[in-house]
């Protein structure tokens, strides 16, 4: 007689997390109007660089050594254009599959596995990773793949692990070391005797990371340390970045945190059995305080802990059945709300319609250097134009000097000074959008805005949807 | 009917009478925010849908509000606006007395002492000051919040009510979050003092905290995404923040909460927590501590925080008063029980009831005068509907509600553009060019210069308003002037 299948062994139950994952990621990708392409800046950098893979970036900073992580643009460059939009979704599904296999290997209970996968697939960091085109999704996938390969015993898998370890630095050097920290905890607390493989992997990673770094040093010289604050600092900003409900682009949801905490409490009695999870989580929390991208790793552990939290709350005997039922509903609603809210946030993220239209216009203009705030630099490059400065600060030439000059150009009302700086950087265009105006100036006709309007050397060649593009012409007296 | 109940009803009638007496002294309301609530309520009463995009506030912006309170008042507004805006709030605020009585009975087991707590709460000066003649969501939130506390104190009997209130309170007003924090602190304090807490209580705490989090996250999603944790400060301009979140002043605390609640409440807290280890006192003490904590961190409005603190002290006073009266029974003073009771009531009257009376009188006087109302009605009748009228931030809701014109700024700061610096600059600058620039930037067609604006900015009249090429004085009374921007 066939054994009766429990609810967790029926085939369609296993498919549920993958269906949810696909639905969520596809919605994220497709909901963004086609006119606005991708959310954020990473996608524009990847697409532009993928079309022009070279060790010399002729557009950024007017031309500089391309000290970037080549991995993701290299992969993108070999794929047909039409498939690029769906690559993150496919990688997301593969990642989820690998995670499910890892959960089986580390022998988590079936109900925890099931809920972990669902919690992971609707978590804001996962949605960001695999619902948008960004520089993190491929390294994270490779790390999950590497972890899975490491957990296997066959030699071919271990050889593949070494191969994967060696290519991760080309995608993200920092992530490769976080990976080995987690791997170390796994090895240590699960008493896995694979020290040699671990060390070989670490050596390969270090070798390729060091090779990249030393090549960059040789070509571009030692990197300048930034003398300006490129992004907000402070505890409040970090908390905001780490929590998606407070605006963090790849932050975790508040309910995930609460459920994760509930999971820690419920599993605390088994802390010696779960030292790998607890140590990894604690370490990642500490690293995330300094490098917020680490939360993308933390999310995997948090999802598993959240699963434990949910199960504990559900299995616990409640004195009030009504409260228990409402509680389960609230938890589900909380997780779903975080997901929906995040999808919406990504949908409304910059660049706006106006910015895309402006970039499309800029693409059609003759070659020239475009001046704007460094936060617009990557978009400007996407329009095949050189920028004065952008956010790829590592090994960038004279970034501090360029920053100081940019600030002078934004603030000055002196035509001579403006002309000097325009000549220095060979500026042909100025990009101005409404948000930039609000951020940089308090008055309507302050600084560069005054020069653009009244010096007679600048013509406004584009003014739509809150984006202005001005063109410089030394010889002509142009009245706007 | 038991004599205590008769006395309780008497206290309720007295409190209600005080409120009704004062609210009908004036047809107007004593806060600018009242007019915000009135406008939204009337819109719902006529259209059955709330204003999501307000075309008048800030010249047009999205409103972040659950509107539950507006729907509630709209039901009464269908019958009569006086009922909705004058009588119902007074009734609701006075009904707090019954709830305070119920909680005080629960924690002291003494009905007489509970009556004293109810009397003190009903006539707490800060409570009167912050709620009389004002249309505010606190009218509904406070009674329900304290009722939730009452239900929590006996969950076995009142569980369903507690569950219902857990859904309603967060939708009504974000101040319900104070109760979440208090419950968490309560659980922590019990755990630290090794006091066993019932399983049902723990479940209720988790339930309330999670539901509050979820509902507030949904309602204030946009604000939280745009502003992160700073949304807690409601986007109040930092220039005004000093007024909203004052430093905690001991003198003001004593005056507004009354000496008796402060002393009796403090003693009650000590007895309840340190001597008797009374769980109910832990809960109320947690609420006080959370309120004080948020006040010192300037995370809640000073006066609202002091009001909460005062009400909780009134309840906890029941413990120390019960001890005091029991002690007196054992001594020779018990012969003079009645005289002492009357003296005590007199003391309450002197330190609470009379100050409440004067506080109420003062608040009534603070409302917009009839001259102001006339000026605003004049704007409504003599200016185009799409006009933008500049007034001080504290009068923005009046411009929208009474004059029915767009304002430049009002006190609904959340997700609104920060125009306070512009408004402040326009009223204080002596430069015509600067003023014109700012007026044009904000699309201002008319300037409303009231007595309150002049006081607020400590000026007589901006000098540039003398320029008749740019400004035409179209309305003038002793206190109010309206100028049209013609250049």
Write the layout of secondary structure elements.
The complex is a heterodimer of chains A (480) and B (487).
Chain A: H1 11-31, H2 42-50, E1 56-57, E2 64-65, H3 71-77, H4 81-84, H5 87-105, H6 110-121, H7 124-131, H8 137-151, H9 155-167, H10 173-189, H11 195-220, H12 235-242, H13 254-267, H14 275-290, H15 295-315, H16 321-348, H17 353-363, E3 369-371, H18 377-382, E4 386-387, H19 399-411, H20 415-425, E5 427-433, H21 434-440, H22 447-454, E6 458-464, E7 467-472
Parallel strand pairs in A: 3-4, 3-5
Antiparallel strand pairs in A: 1-2, 5-7, 6-7
Helix pairs in contact in A: 1-5, 1-6, 1-16, 2-3, 5-6, 5-7, 5-8, 6-15, 8-9, 8-10, 9-11, 10-11, 10-14, 13-15, 13-16, 14-15
Chain B: H1 3-23, H2 32-47, E1 53-54, E2 61-62, H3 68-77, H4 81-108, H5 111-122, H6 125-131, H7 138-153, H8 155-172, H9 177-192, H10 199-219, H11 221-227, H12 238-244, H13 250-257, H14 259-275, H15 279-296, H16 302-330, H17 337-366, H18 370-382, E3 388-390, H19 396-401, E4 406-407, H20 420-428, H21 432-441, E5 446-449, H22 451-457, E6 471-476, E7 481-485
Helix pairs in contact in B: 1-4, 1-5, 1-17, 2-3, 3-4, 4-5, 4-7, 4-16, 5-16, 6-17, 7-8, 8-10, 9-10, 9-15, 14-15, 14-16, 15-16, 20-21
Any idea what the shape of chain A is? Answer: globular
Radius of gyration of chain B: 24 Å
Shape label of chain B: globular
State the end-to-end CA separation of chain B.
73 Å
Q: Main beta sheet of chain A: strand number and arrangement?
A: 5 strands, mixed
- From the helix content, strand content and strand pairing of chain A, which structural class follows? alpha/beta
């Amino acid at each position: 007689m066939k054994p009766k299948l429990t609810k967790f062994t029926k085939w369609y139950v296993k498919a549920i997390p993958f269906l949810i994952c696909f639905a969520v990621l596809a919605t994220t990708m497709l909901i963004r109007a086609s006119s606005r392409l991708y959310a954020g800046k990473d996608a524009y950098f990847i697409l532009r660089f993928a079309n022009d893979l070279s060790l010399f970036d002729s557009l950024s900073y007017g031309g500089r050594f391309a000290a970037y992580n080549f991995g993701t643009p290299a992969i993108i460059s070999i794929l047909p254009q039409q498939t690029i939009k769906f690559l993150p979704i496919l990688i997301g599904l593969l990642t989820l599959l690998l995670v499910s296999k890892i959960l089986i290997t580390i022998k988590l209970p079936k109900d925890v596995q099931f809920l972990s996968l669902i919690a992971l697939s609707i978590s804001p960091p996962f949605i960001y990773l695999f619902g948008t085109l960004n520089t993190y999704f491929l390294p994270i996938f490779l790390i999950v793949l590497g972890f899975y390969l490491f957990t296997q015993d066959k030699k071919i898998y271990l050889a593949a692990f070494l191969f994967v370890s060696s290519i991760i630095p080309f995608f993200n050097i920092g992530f490769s070391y976080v990976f080995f920290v987690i791997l170390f905890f796994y090895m240590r607390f699960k008493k896995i005797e694979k020290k040699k493989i671990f060390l070989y992997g670490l050596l390969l990673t270090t070798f390729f990371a060091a090779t990249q770094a030393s090549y960059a040093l040789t070509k571009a010289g030692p990197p300048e340390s930034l003398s300006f604050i490129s992004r907000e600092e402070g505890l409040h900003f970090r908390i905001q970045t780490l929590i998606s409900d407070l605006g963090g682009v790849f932050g975790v949801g508040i309910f995930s945190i609460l459920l994760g905490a509930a999971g820690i409490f419920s599993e605390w009695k088994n802390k010696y059995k779960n030292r790998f999870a607890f140590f990894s989580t604690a370490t990642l929390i500490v690293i995330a305080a300094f490098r917020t991208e680490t939360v993308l790793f933390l999310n995997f552990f948090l999802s598993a802990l959240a699963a434990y939290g949910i199960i504990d709350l559900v299995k616990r005997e409640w004195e009030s059945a009504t409260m228990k039922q409402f509680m389960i509903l609230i938890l589900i609603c909380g997780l779903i709300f975080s997901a929906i809210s995040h999808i919406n946030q990504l949908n409304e993220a910059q660049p706006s319609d106006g910015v895309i239209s402006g970039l499309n216009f800029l693409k059609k203009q003759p070659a020239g250097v475009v001046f704007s705030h460094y936060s617009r630099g990557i978009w400007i490059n996407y329009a095949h134009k050189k920028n004065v400065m952008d956010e790829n600060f590592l090994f960038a030439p004279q970034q501090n000097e360029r920053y100081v000059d940019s600030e002078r150009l934004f603030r000055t009302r002196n035509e001579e000074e403006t002309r000097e700086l325009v000549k220095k950087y060979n500026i042909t265009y100025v990009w101005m959008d409404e948000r930039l105006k609000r951020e940089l100036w308090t008055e309507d006709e302050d600084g560069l805005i005054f020069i653009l309007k009244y010096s007679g050397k600048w013509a406004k060649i584009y003014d739509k949807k809150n984006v202005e593009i001005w063109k410089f012409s030394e010889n002509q007296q142009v009245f706007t | 009917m038991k004599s205590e109940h008769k006395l309780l009803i008497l206290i309720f009638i007295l409190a209600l009478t005080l409120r009704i007496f004062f609210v009908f002294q004036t047809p107007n309301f004593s806060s600018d925010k009242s007019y915000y609530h009135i406008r939204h309520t009337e819109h719902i009463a006529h259209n059955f849908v709330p204003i999501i995009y307000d075309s008048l506030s800030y010249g047009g912006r999205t409103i972040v509000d659950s509107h539950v309170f507006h729907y509630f008042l709209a039901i009464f507004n269908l019958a009569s606006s006086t009922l909705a805006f004058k009588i119902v709030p007074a009734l609701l605020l006075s009904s707090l007395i019954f709830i305070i009585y119920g909680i005080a009975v629960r924690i002291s087991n003494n009905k007489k002492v509970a009556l004293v707590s109810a009397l003190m709460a009903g006539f707490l000066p800060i409570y009167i000051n912050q709620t009389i003649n004002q249309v505010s969501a606190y009218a509904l939130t406070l009674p329900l919040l304290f009722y939730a506390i009452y239900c929590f104190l006996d969950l076995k009997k009142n569980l369903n009510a507690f569950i219902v209130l857990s859904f309603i309170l967060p939708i009504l007003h974000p101040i319900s979050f104070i109760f979440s924090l208090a419950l968490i602190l309560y659980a922590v304090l019990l755990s630290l003092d090794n006091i066993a807490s019932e399983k049902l209580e723990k479940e209720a705490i988790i339930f309330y905290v999670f539901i509050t989090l979820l509902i507030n996250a949904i309602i204030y999603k946009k604000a939280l995404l745009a502003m992160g944790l700073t949304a807690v400060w409601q986007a109040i301009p930092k220039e005004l923040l000093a007024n909203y979140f004052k430093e905690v002043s001991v003198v003001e605390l004593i005056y507004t909460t009354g000496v008796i609640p402060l002393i009796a409440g403090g003693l009650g807290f000590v007895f309840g927590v340190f001597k008797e280890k009374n769980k109910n006192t832990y809960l109320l003490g947690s609420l006080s501590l959370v309120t004080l904590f948020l006040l010192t961190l300037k995370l809640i409005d000073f006066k609202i925080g002091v009001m909460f603190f005062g009400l909780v002290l009134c309840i906890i006073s029941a413990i120390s008063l019960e001890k005091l009266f029991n002690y007196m029974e054992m001594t020779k003073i018990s012969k003079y029980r009645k005289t002492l009771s009357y003296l005590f009531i007199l003391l309450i009257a002197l330190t609470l009831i009379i100050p409440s009376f004067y506080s109420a009188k003062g608040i009534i006087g603070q409302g917009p005068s009839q001259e102001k109302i006339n000026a605003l009605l004049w704007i409504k009748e003599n200016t185009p509907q799409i006009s933008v009228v500049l007034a001080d931030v504290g009068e923005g809701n009046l411009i929208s509600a009474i004059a029915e014109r767009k304002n430049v700024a009002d006190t609904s700061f959340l997700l609104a553009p920060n125009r306070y610096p512009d408004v402040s600059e326009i009223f204080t600058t002596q430069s015509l060019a600067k003023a014109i620039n700012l007026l044009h930037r904000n699309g201002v067609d008319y300037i409303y210069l009231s007595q309150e604006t002049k006081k607020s900015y400590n000026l007589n009249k901006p000098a540039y308003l003398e320029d008749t090429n740019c400004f035409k004085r179209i309305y003038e009374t002793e206190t109010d002037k309206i100028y049209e921007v013609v250049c």
